[in-house]
Structures are given as C-alpha cells and as structure tokens.
UniProtKB/TrEMBL annotation:
It comes from Phenylobacterium kunshanense. One of its GO terms (molecular function) is transferase activity. Keywords: Transferase. It holds the Pfam family CoA_transf_3. The keyword Protein biosynthesis does not apply. The keyword Transferase applies. This is CoA transferase.
Length: 759
C-alpha cells in the first residue's frame, strides 16, 4: 500500500506542471484519469509526456460539447481531486470553476494550476516558461556576461509548481481527514517561481551583485583544466576550501587570498590549467574536497551512481520499445512510490461512486497541529521547513553553536528560513540528546541533511526516534543517496548541476554555465515537503510513522524529468548557449529602446502577424530559424528603437504571445505581480523591513501563510522548551551546561553564567 491508494484524481491539465503534479500523486498509488481534449495534450509528441502521465489512464473528452462536459462532471462527482490549468475565465464558462464544483461536491479538492497567475493582463497568455521567467525578473537573475536576460533551457519553475501542487493537494487531503470537507487549492506558475527563485530583499542589507556564468566566488566556481574539460570546485565552506589549497600546495597563501578574491580566482584558474581534469578530481577526492566533473545529462542518467541509487527505470512501450525515465524522487519506507505503467490510452471511464463525507469542526491552515523538528541546514534542509511552515506547520529550526553554515543577514538566508522558530541545541553535550528525544516524543516530523552515518553517531537516527515515538516521520537528505560508493561523500547543489548535465545543457556548445538558482537544493526542499505530507496522509490510515530518504542526486533527475526520458529515436532537447536568449528566432528575448521583451510564435500564422507588426520579412520557414540567425537579427533591428509598451500592445493585439522581461527592481513594484500577491512586506526584528514571497499555494477555506519572521540563532530556545512542556529548572540546567543556548538579541549567542535566570 502507498500513501494515496484509494484517492481518485481526474486530471484536466496539459503540458508540464499539472500533469506532473498528478504524476507524483499517482506514483503514490492514487488512481488518476487524465482527460485530454480531442487531439490530445499539447505536449503529447514530446518525450516528457510519457513520464508526466505515467500511471494514468488517458481519455479524450470535448468539454465544448454537451456530452463531453456532462461526462467530465460525472467523473468529478466521484473524484477526490480535480486538477485544472485553464486560463482565467475558462473554467467559469464551463461551470468547472472552484466555487461551482466545491458547492456541488463539498468533499472535492479543486486544484487550479495556471501557468502564470490567476488574474490580470498576462495571466491569459499561452503557456511558455520563458515568458513566465521574464515576467518575474528570474531571467535577469541568472548569471551572465552581458547585461541581458537569460533563457533557461530547463522549465524549473514549472517543475517546482508541479511538486508544490502535489504537496498542496496532499495538504488539502490531510486537512479533509480532519474536517470532512474539500476546498479550492491554487498553485500557479508564480508560486513555482517563488519557490525556485526565493525573491527576498532586506532593506538594510545591500543586495548581492549579479553572478557570472562560471560563478563569481573562487571557492565555488567552474574551472577548466589542461585537457579542455571542466569541473566545479564546491568548497563553499572554509574547511573544504583550506583542503583544496592543501592539494594545490598553497597553504601559506590561504589567508592572503581569502582577502583578495580576484587574485585567488586568477591563481586558481592558472593552476587548474596545468593538469587534466581527472588528475585534479583524483587529487581533490583523496583529500575529501567536494568537486564534480561537468558531464552531459545523458551520461549522468546512464551512470553507475544513478543505477546504485535505483533512480533509473525502464518500461516497454508498444511503439517506442524500451523507455527509460527517472524513478520517484523519494523513498518512503512503509508506503513507497512506484511506476507501474506508461500512459494507458482509451478504455471506459471509471464508474466512481460520489464521495460522501461527514463534515466536522476544524480550523487553522492545512498543516495546523503538525510539529516539525528541523535539523536541516544550508538550503535544501532548511528551506523544506520553511515550505512546511508556510502551510501551517509549527517548525523548530535547531542549530548547534557553530550555527547553520549558511547563516547570515543576507537575503538568501532570510528567505530560506522564514516562518520558523529557532532552538539552540548542542547535540554533542550530555543532556542534549535526551532533550531532543523528549521533543521527538511530541513531534510529528524530524528533518535532517547530515552526511550518511552522522544521525547514527548522534543517536538520533530513525530507529532511535521510532523507539520513543512510533508515529514519527523522519526525513533525511544527503547528496548521493544511501547506496553505492558515493553515498558517504559530501555534496553541494552545483556538483549535481555539473555532473547531472544542467550546466552543459545551459551552456550548449559553449562553456558550461552555473545556474544562479540552486536548482537541486530548492527542488529537494519541495520534494521533502511533498513527501512529508504524503507520509502524514499515510499515517492517518496506518497510525504509524516511517522513514523518508531523498537526495540532491534524485532531484538532479526530477528537475530534468522531461529531458531525460530516453528511447530509441527520441528527438533532441533544445540546447542552450553562451548568454542564451532563447531557443529559436521566434522564441527568445529581444531588446527594445527602454527594456526587454519575450516573444513566442508557435504557428506560421502567428509568425506572419509578427512580421506585419514589425514590418519584417519572415522568410520561408520562420519557426525553425535559429536564435542568432538572419531572421533574429532582422527582428532585433526592428525592435531596438521602439518603446516596449507600444510593441507589446501591438503584438498582443495581433495575437502574438509576448510579455515584458523585468529586472529585479522592477519586479518589486510591478502592478501585475502585486495584483497576484507575488510578494509581501514584513519586518525582521533586528534587520528591519523586508520583502519576499507571500507563499507557495492558496487555500480557499483554510488559508495559510507566514506568521513569523526569520529567527536569529537560538532566539526562541527557552520559549520553545516551555511551550513543549520542559520544566523551568531543567531549562536552566541545560543552559548552564551548554546543552541548550539562547540568542543574545544581536544575532549571536548569549553567554549564560551559573545560576542565571532563564529569560
């Protein structure tokens, strides 16, 4: 049995995000019926379709015909979840909007996953990831050599939207188990961007400058070697960086070069050019220095590391033969996910009986009452707690006196750690482990991202937690999974970007490109939240907790899911390139006199209308023209002297999909983003005003959101222990022993003298 067995889902969505959300639920054995329009899903000929719609029965219904619409409503009547991705207004016209359906079917979870926002001028555009990234300033966040937006070849915001959608639907189902009532859930493309980009501005802290394609920090950067091959040096933390200098024989120069990053970069660039990549990787690995080779995604998917992790599956398709795709991204020990089939086309519609549930009193957000102890650090582990807090869980961020190594007053840390309380706990001190296990007796979830084996050495691995609380859900993250020779190795997001093919894919035929967004980290955070919610749903039926295991490696596959589906004769993926502005002449970013726009033409008719608006000759095959060819040059020349607003008005009037590409500062004041509630203002007690993401899903009946600012280290230690029933005398003793510590109100750790009172 898996987490969502018995849950009935009817999926009306197309493309990436909605189908992938339903896929993730179907992997946990939800029964999913995919309803497509006549002619099928708009991406049915793309390889990713086979993965996004695995474990589903696929039928065609014409919702514009009375018979098809009636059949759809009959399906919905017996469903637990209905998923849609239509543009605003379309569902209302069909009578399939959330207000109508949840009034008619009170137990239904109505999930709407539009590709942009829910309202306003740009929300009705055809679905194009490049336009979404431009509208939110994400295209200007990616590191570049020139002052221009960058087209990302991976649809990472839609992948995030999919995982958030599965998490939010799961949260609504969990809440329904308390209340007996469904509700409307909205997870838009903007929510997906918010999760991957983590937009955050702290007024008192200067923003970081835009990065460069190889990386701006010499300790965390791409380097080329004597054989022309590249690797990523992942020494984000000082201890690892010192080890790298030892390998290079530069120990004596470490302190001086720490103060001069440009000199360090130039020196390291020169030194790494003196030996081959394999020689450097061998030397670095021998000294426990995290680094990773740049490879193609196809080689990564076929690698022994992926095989050791059980992350490559092969299924048989009658037309294509053997089809390989990534496996589910998390292992649940009691209710595992599985891939049982490719999309199954046709067949009779299921005769589902309508759900009738007794309504019960319930209040609070979807995860109200869920208690989480979060030992996670840096991004993946820490951010998972923030995502759960945004859905209403009580999350305690636990740090030792060395602090989360990512901790700072910068916008990234502030954004990744909002909404939680902070407990200072030194697990190496006597008494701290006993206290942690006492807290675990009351907790629902424990999250960590320790290296393999550390949990056991600390005495807080899953068997230890289960012994004190059989209902506990323990989720552990590492870099390379728990199997194979790589499992104990340290790892960081860019190492998986490098070896996983993301950097080579974005760089195309040019040099590899570091994604400024920590793709694998933020992906892992969302997968942890989704998996924890699945385990909470399973616990409602079994009464038992379980262990969840996931890795950055798993997400390096999940966030390339469509690109990694493999079979004989599959079409190639769109390549990136140096400072990539798009994939073709009529699917790219262009500069106007006062800013940039993105435009996309999918048909010859749209291309002809673009030519009329710009007075540009389109040629014989405009849709296949390269992004930097003659047609692109003609379009660029026609746009250079024109005002952005005037051009967009003309293109939209002509029926050409186009939108502005915003810079970061423009996004803070953009009326469309404000209309859709993309950001919200709040205040940090020490740092002052801040602006960051409002949330990652919206719920009609049980709204959620952030209720706390980002905490300083140990800020709430005594408060938390009191709330969790720890006696005052024990709190004082733990503080005096150093097993527990508190914040000093200035961002540091308070000193507690013997016999001091508990604040």
């Amino acid at each position: 049995m898996s987490a969502y067995r018995g849950v009935r889902i009817v999926d009306f969505s197309q493309g990436v995000a909605g189908p992938m959300a339903a896929m993730l639920l179907g992997d946990f054995e939800a029964e999913v019926v995919k309803v497509e329009p006549p002619g099928g899903d708009r991406l049915k000929h793309q390889p990713g379709y086979l993965a996004f719609n695995r474990n589903k029965r696929v039928v065609e219904l014409d919702l514009d015909a009375a018979e098809g619409l009636a059949a759809a409503k009959t399906l919905i009547a017996g469903a637990d979840v209905a998923i849609f991705d239509a543009a605003p207004g379309r569902l209302e016209a069909l009578g399939l909007d959330s207000a109508t359906l949840t009034a008619t079917f009170p137990a239904l979870v109505h999930a709407w996953m539009p590709p942009y926002g829910t309202t306003g001028r740009w929300s009705g555009l055809p679905a194009h990831h490049s336009l979404l990234m431009g509208l939110t300033s994400a295209a200007f966040r990616q590191g570049a050599y020139a002052d221009q937006p960058i087209h990302l070849v991976l649809p990472i915001a839609w992948y995030a939207q999919a995982v958030l959608g599965a998490a939010a639907i799961g949260a609504a189902l969990l809440e329904r188990s308390r209340s007996g009532r469904g509700q409307a859930v909205t997870v838009s493309g903007l929510h997906g961007v918010a999760e991957v980009m983590n937009p955050c501005n702290v007024a008192s802290v200067p923003p970081m400058p835009r990065g460069t394609p190889p990386g701006a920090n010499p300790r965390y950067r791409l380097y080329q070697c004597a054989d022309g091959e590249w690797f990523f040096l992942g020494t984000l933390f000082t201890g690892f960086y010192r080890k790298a200098f030892a390998v290079l024989g530069l120990e004596d120069a470490f302190e001086a070069l720490e103060d001069d990053q440009l000199a360090a970069r130039d020196l390291l660039e020169g030194m790494f050019l003196t030996r081959t990549r394999d020689e450097w990787l061998e030397a670095m690995a021998a000294n426990d220095v995290p680094c990773g080779p740049v490879r193609r995604r196809e080689a990564w998917f076929a690698s022994q590391a992926v095989a050791d992790g059980g992350l490559r599956l092969t299924l048989e398709d009658p037309q294509r033969g053997a089809v390989a795709m990534p496996a589910p991204p998390a292992e649940l020990s009691m209710t595992p996910a599985s891939v049982r089939s490719l999309p199954r086309l046709g067949g009779a519609l299921p005769a589902w009986e309508p759900r009738v549930l007794a309504a019960r009193p319930s209040k609070g957000p979807p995860l109200a009452g869920v208690k989480v102890l979060n030992l996670g650090t840096v991004i993946a582990g820490a951010y998972a707690g923030t995502l759960l807090a945004n859905l209403g869980a009580e999350v305690i961020k636990i740090e030792g006196p060395e602090a989360d190594p990512f901790r700072s007053d910068g916008a990234q840390f502030v954004g990744y750690n909002r909404g939680v309380r902070a407990l200072g706990l030194n697990l190496r001190e006597p008494g701290a482990r006993d206290l942690f296990l006492d807290l675990a007796r009351q907790a629902d979830v424990v999250i960590d991202n320790y290296r393999l084996g550390v949990r056991g050495r600390l005495g807080i691995d899953y068997p230890a937690l289960k012994a004190v609380n059989p209902r506990i859900i323990s989720c552990s993250i590492n870099a390379y999974g728990t199997k194979g020779p790589r499992a104990p190795l340290p790892g960081f997001d860019p190492l998986l970007q490098a070896e996983g093919g993301m950097m080579a894919g974005q760089g195309g035929e040019g040099d590899p490109v570091l994604h400024t967004i920590a793709v694998n980290d933020v992906a892992t955070a969302s997968v942890v939240a989704m998996s924890v919610i699945a385990a909470l749903n399973a616990r409602e039926r079994t009464g038992e907790g379980q262990e969840i295991l996931t890795s950055l490696m798993a997400q390096s596959l999940l966030f390339q899911l469509g690109e990694l589906v493999t079979y004989e004769g599959r079409p190639p993926n769109d390549p990136g390139g140096p400072d990539c502005v798009g994939v073709r002449a009529l699917h790219r970013y262009y500069a106007c006199a006062d800013g940039w726009i993105g435009l996309v033409c999918e048909t010859e008719a749209e291309a002809a209308r673009l030519g009329q608006v710009l007075a540009v000759e389109m040629g014989g095959a405009p849709l296949s023209e390269p992004r930097d060819g003659e047609l692109a040059m003609r379009v660029a020349a026609a746009l250079t002297g024109r005002q952005r607003g005037e051009v967009l008005e003309a293109l939209l009037t002509a029926g050409v999909a186009a939108a502005p590409v915003l810079r970061g500062t423009e996004a803070y004041d953009d009326p469309w983003l404000a209309e859709n509630g993309f950001l919200e203002s709040w205040s940090h007690g020490r740092l002052g005003p801040a602006l960051s993401s409002r949330g990652y899903a919206d719920f009609s009946r049980t709204p959620s959101g952030f209720t706390r600012p980002t905490p300083d280290i140990g800020q709430h230690s005594a408060e938390i222990l009191r709330d969790w029933g720890v006696a005052e005398g024990r709190i004082a003793d733990l503080l005096a022993q150093g097993a527990v510590f508190a914040g000093d109100g200035l961002g540091g750790i308070a000193k507690v003298s013997q016999g001091a009172s508990v604040a």
